């Protein structure tokens, strides 16, 4: 017999994030990975919108599928040149903001 879970007692990610952000160490690490997270999220979103696989994107961007995988997994620091090739392969543009 499965145990029923009372979903009214579950914590949302946003509630957890608010609590975790009170920790200076967590906040520092969170802020450090944000550019990588945003980049990965945008590449994945644009690729999926175009219904492309990582391999297809890599071929059009003249790179390897492993490179795309590392970017999407936040395990790489791409050059502007690579980002330009990826944007061109996705028929989109790059917009950078420094605040």
Short note summarizing the structure:
The protein has five helices and no strands. The protein is mainly α. It is extended, with a radius of gyration of 18 Å.
Task: Describe this protein with a few key phrases.
extended, 5 helices, 434 Repressor (Amino-terminal Domain), Lambda_DNA-bd_dom_sf, 99 residues, DNA binding, Cro/C1-type_HTH, 0% strand, Helix-turn-helix domain protein, mainly alpha
Structure overview:
The protein is an all-alpha fold. It has helices at residues 13-20, 24-49, 54-60, 65-72, 80-89. The protein has one domain (12-89): Orthogonal Bundle (434 Repressor (Amino-terminal Domain)), CATH 1.10.260.40. Helix 3 crosses helix 4. The chain is extended and about 50 Å long. The termini are far apart. The model has no long low-confidence stretch (mean pLDDT 93).
Helices and strands in order, then pairings?
Elements: H1 13-20, H2 24-49, H3 54-60, H4 65-72, H5 80-89
Helix pairs in contact: 3-4
Protein name: Helix-turn-helix domain protein
Pfam families: HTH_3
GO molecular function: DNA binding
